[in-house]
Write a sequence for this structure.
């Protein structure tokens, strides 16, 4: 790190690193400078010019997101010149954005709207220039509404620099600029939603289902409405209600879903335990039979779509285990429904997910069980928060409630599934017990810290009993290439499409930054550390369901396993 420098912002003396931008220094010191195109995940583009500041001795205003501090710099963020330029730029940007505020899920969290209110922008000063722009839909997961786009290009950076998919392109110049899907048919969207997560407005966003759920909750007829929530939601949803990043709100989350009107609320960490037990058994079988190695995780539908489209030759390497919410929904519509004497056709399962790709996954016909889709609807964390805000349900003020479980027995272990490396670690805990069988030394190993952390690729050799497992964890699909090239070097690989895993998923609260991802992941590991149950194979309810399924003929494979489709 270079020597610290002394600068002044609005007269305040600050000692700071010369390696970060003025924008970041200001933020670290509690001085807000607005900005639309800047994001810590990308190098600065400096194209919105909303973050302009005045630097003493320089004639032109400077974009603070692209300039680094130098010794003796004196910066003003709110001089009359800065205010005039900033407001003019914001008014021009508003002319690019058709307001759909009343039904927009970003309504309470839109940077543009917030700035308009804060800086008293005349939003109708220039006429709307993009009224007739198209909306591009990517399967049932993500969309880009050109009439709302403010040309910041963050979605393009997310798709190309972060995810290395390159599905989004910039067409035209100046006021004719438009974000369009790639024409090259060798490129396809994987539905990860990172474009939406980095969009400062609601131009790139999930294809919403909240309206349907709202109607269903108001008029359910004879339907039983069941909500399921993902491991990572418990440490992120609080942010939508002003709680600190990584605040654990599991019990309040259950109460919020009940307040919305759901009849039952289940925790997907139960489903994660089902996935672990099925996947770990398959891993050991493949290792013993030396077949289809390395085995690769498949609970991330963004990754599965990537493999199906870009590398169909490796589909036999993917585990055949279904993903956690599909496992849980399958158990609900079979074992639980039978025990409760409920017709499965009357059950509507709504999955609250950090993920846009799960919307696509829920429509996969190969997942159907006796003709019924296990998961009926997927709402992102943001959609769920929007539903709560519309009903004026203050999540942070609710008293915690308990979740329902699909079988007898209390605790589940799978909270770490929400962070990169969590699926691997959970499976290794169970694999260790299968490999060691009675050997207390290796049987007791719980922590596989080699799999944790925010590095793009994590590799290790893990010794369990007489086996040396070569593992790799791919944290973000943008890091997949080197691993695909040396696939034979490994026995077991985890891939999550989003940076940080699901805690950084495309449906999570905005903003999501490296710092915020870390806080959410730390919170999940904190839950795990103190959890009463940390091994999936000791989940009594899961064992009860698996035992029952074994007596149910083909239902066993319908509930537990899946297959993949070559899509290129
Ligand atoms: S969903 Fe992912 S792959 Fe698709 S356009 Fe957005 S960032 Fe690119
Ligand atoms: S879709 Fe959103 S992220 Fe992409 S350029 Fe438009 S405003 Fe920016
Ligand atoms: S990492 Fe998680 S949020 Fe992202 S696509 Fe995969 S499952 Fe969805
Ligand atoms: S945030 Fe600096 S130019 Fe856009």
């Amino acid at each position: 790190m270079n020597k610290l420098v002394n600068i002044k912002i609005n007269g305040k003396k600050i000692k700071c690193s010369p390696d970060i931008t003025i924008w970041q220094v200001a933020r670290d010191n509690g001085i807000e400078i607005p900005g639309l195109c800047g994001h810590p995940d990308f190098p600065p583009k400096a194209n919105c010019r909303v973050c302009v500041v005045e630097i003493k001795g320089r004639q032109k205003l400077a974009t603070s997101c692209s300039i680094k501090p130098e010794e003796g710099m004196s910066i003003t963020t709110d001089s009359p010149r800065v205010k005039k330029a900033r407001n003019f730029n914001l008014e021009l940007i508003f002319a690019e954005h058709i307001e759909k505020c009343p039904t927009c899920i970003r309504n309470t969290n839109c940077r543009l709207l917030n700035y308009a209110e804060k800086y008293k922008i005349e939003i109708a000063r220039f006429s709307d220039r993009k009224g007739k722009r198209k909306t591009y839909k990517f399967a049932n997961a993500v969309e880009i509404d050109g009439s709302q786009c403010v040309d910041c290009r963050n979605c393009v950076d997310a798709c190309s620099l972060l995810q290395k998919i390159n599905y989004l392109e910039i067409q035209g110049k100046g006021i004719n600029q438009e974000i369009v899907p790639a024409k090259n048919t060798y490129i396809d969207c994987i539905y990860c939603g990172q474009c939406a997560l980095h969009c400062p407005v609601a131009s790139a966003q999930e294809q919403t289902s909240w309206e349907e759920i709202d109607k269903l909750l108001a008029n359910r007829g004879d339907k039983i409405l069941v909500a399921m929530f993902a491991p990572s939601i418990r440490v992120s949803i609080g942010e939508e209600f002003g709680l600190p990043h990584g605040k654990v709100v599991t019990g309040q989350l259950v109460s919020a879903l009940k307040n919305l009107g759901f009849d039952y609320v289940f925790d997907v960490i139960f489903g994660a335990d089902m996935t672990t037990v099925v996947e770990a058994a398959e891993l050991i079988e493949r290792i013993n039979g030396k077949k289809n190695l390395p085995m690769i995780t498949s609970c991330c539908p963004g990754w599965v779509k990537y493999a199906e489209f870009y590398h169909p030759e490796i589909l036999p390497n993917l585990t055949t285990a279904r993903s956690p919410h599909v496992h849980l929904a399958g158990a609900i519509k079979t074992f639980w429904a039978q025990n409760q004497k409920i017709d499965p056709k009357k059950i509507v399962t709504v999955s609250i997910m950090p993920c846009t790709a799960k919307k696509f996954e829920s429509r996969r016909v190969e997942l159907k069980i006796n003709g019924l889709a296990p998961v009926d609807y997927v709402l992102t964390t943001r959609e769920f928060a929007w539903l709560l805000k519309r009903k004026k349900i203050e999540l942070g003020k609710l008293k915690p409630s308990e979740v329902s479980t699909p079988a007898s027995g209390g605790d589940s272990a799978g909270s770490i599934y929400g962070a990169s490396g969590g699926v691997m670690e959970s499976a290794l805990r169970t694999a260790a017990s299968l490999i060691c069988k009675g050997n207390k030394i290796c049987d007791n190993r719980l922590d596989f810290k080699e799999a944790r952390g925010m590095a793009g690729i994590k590799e290790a050799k893990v010794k369990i009993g007489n086996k040396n497992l070569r593992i790799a964890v791919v944290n973000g699909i943008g890091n997949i290439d080197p691993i695909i090239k040396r696939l034979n070097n490994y026995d077991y690989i985890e891939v999550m499409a989003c940076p940080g895993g699901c805690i950084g998923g495309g449906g999570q609260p905005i903003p999501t930054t490296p710092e915020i991802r870390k806080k959410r992941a730390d919170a999940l590991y904190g839950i795990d550390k103190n959890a009463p149950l940390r091994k999936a194979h000791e989940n009594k309810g899961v064992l009860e369901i698996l035992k029952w399924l074994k007596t149910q003929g083909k239902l066993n494979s319908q509930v537990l396993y899946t297959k993949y489709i070559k899509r290129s």
Q: What stands out?
A: Residues 268-289 form the longest helix (22 residues). The mean pLDDT is 95. The longest strand covers residues 467-475. The pocket of iron/sulfur cluster (ligand 2) is lined by residues 144, 149-155, 179, 198-199, 201, 203-204 (CB under 6 Å).
